[in-house]
Design goal:
The chain is of the alpha/beta class. Helices cover 41% and strands 14% of the residues. The protein has two domains: 93 residues, Rossmann fold (3-Layer(aba) Sandwich), CATH 3.40.50; 133 residues, 3-Layer(aba) Sandwich (Rossmann fold). It has 13 helices and eleven strands. A five-stranded parallel sheet has the order 3-2-1-4-5, with helices on both faces. A four-stranded parallel sheet has the order 9-6-10-11. The model has no long low-confidence stretch (mean pLDDT 94).
């Protein structure tokens, strides 16, 4: 028998886990992605059933979920296996800030917590508006965000928007509308010619090596390299399109651009 709201939920990505905890609906979660680390207690409270593009289907089925939450075409294979097994699946596909806020509201509706989800989303909206309205010096610093180093990948949608909200200017804003990583590959010479003032890097699960960035051919004269403004942002707070990006991720960007005083000026949600 189908349950509404669903009592047993498996989350195949991190952002839906964090959102359910923020909504006070964590008791519904019976399985999570191995990458789920927010809030910290999730690692000891919930069994891990998946990576990102792979999952333990028998383990998920053994949990008897009423609903599985997935993300994007990258999990289409997992979703197909679950659907064939008769499991209800909802696939989110948020790629920008508006999409993250819509995900929060939709997830709230799915678990019967629409009012709390609306309050949560509105809190984030107020926070984003306050950060956007914060007075900043001119001109805006030019920012290159690097999601991967070989090949160079940039322009992930919500990060590009958050750079602008924090007071920066993305050097490749046209890439934010391209969904696939392969469509956001940039040439090293294009970065050099863009002359970013700050390089933000988050290499999707591996530690950023600033020395390797500095050593790239022709990059020594890039202002960010010359002035030693290469900043790593940890993947869990920026590469997940959910609450983490709107809070700690945005804080990290603002701090990289404006210094430690920037975080003190950012209101809580």
């Amino acid at each position: 028998m189908r349950q509404f709201p669903p009592r047993r939920i498996v989350c195949l990505t991190e952002e839906t886990v964090e959102t359910l905890y923020l909504l006070g609906e964590q008791d519904r979660i019976v399985g999570v992605s191995g990458y789920a680390i927010r809030p910290p207690q999730v690692r000891r409270e919930k069994p891990r059933v998946s990576a990102f593009v792979s999952a333990d289907i028998p383990k998920i089925l053994a949990l008897e979920p009423d609903l599985v939450l997935a993300f994007s075409d990258l999990q289409a294979g997992i979703v197909a296996d679950l659907v064939r097994a008769g499991v209800d699946v909802h696939v989110f596909n948020q790629r920008d800030v508006a999409g993250i806020l819509a995900m929060i509201r939709t997830l709230g509706a799915l678990v019967g917590a629409g009012g709390r989800a609306e309050d949560l989303a509105q809190g984030f909206e107020r926070r984003l508006a306050a950060v956007t309205a914060t007075p900043r010096p001119s001109p805006r610093p030019r920012i290159y965000f690097e999601e991967w180093d070989d090949p160079l990948i940039s322009g992930i949608g919500w990060v590009s928007e958050l750079v602008e909200i924090a007071g920066g200017e993305d050097v490749f804003p046209e890439l934010r509308h391209r969904q696939g990583a392969k469509d956001r590959i940039v040439a090293a010479d294009a970065v050099r010619e863009a002359a970013p003032d700050v390089i933000l890097a988050s290499w999707c699960g591996k530690k950023v090596a600033p020395a390797r960035i500095r050593a790239r051919d022709g990059w020594s004269e890039i202002p960010a390299v010359r002035n030693d403004r290469i900043v790593e942002i940890k993947s869990p707070i920026i590469l997940q399109p959910g609450p983490a990006a709107l809070t700690d991720g945005l804080d990290a960007i603002a701090t990289a651009l404006w210094g430690t005083h920037a975080k003190r000026s950012i209101p809580s949600s």
